[in-house]
Write a structure and sequence with these properties.
about 0% strand; about 80 residues; mainly alpha
């Protein structure tokens, strides 16, 4: 009878191992959650950088447009006859 009772009684070592595995699982889950949050942050920063690049490109295009207009005006002034100044 004693053998059967011992067989059904929980093994302390197994309980400790299970507890350790549960804790390790919780730690790994927390690490995965942190990595997911890091990834979301990186994606958000990437979107901000894309918007900044788009704004810079827009500003550069406007600046080039202004410079081309200035060059056109300078070219027109160069083509005027000398006496019309």
């Amino acid at each position: 009878m004693k053998f059967i009772f011992n067989w059904f009684r929980p093994n302390k070592k197994l309980q400790e191992d299970n507890r350790l595995l549960r804790l390790q699982t919780e730690i790994l889950t927390a690490k995965i959650d942190a990595l997911v949050m890091d990834n979301e942050l990186i994606e958000a920063e990437n979107e901000v950088l894309k918007l900044q690049v788009a704004n810079m490109e827009k500003a550069n295009m406007m600046q080039m447009k202004d410079l081309l207009q200035e060059l056109d005006l300078m070219a027109l002034e160069q083509m005027k006859p000398v006496g019309d100044a």
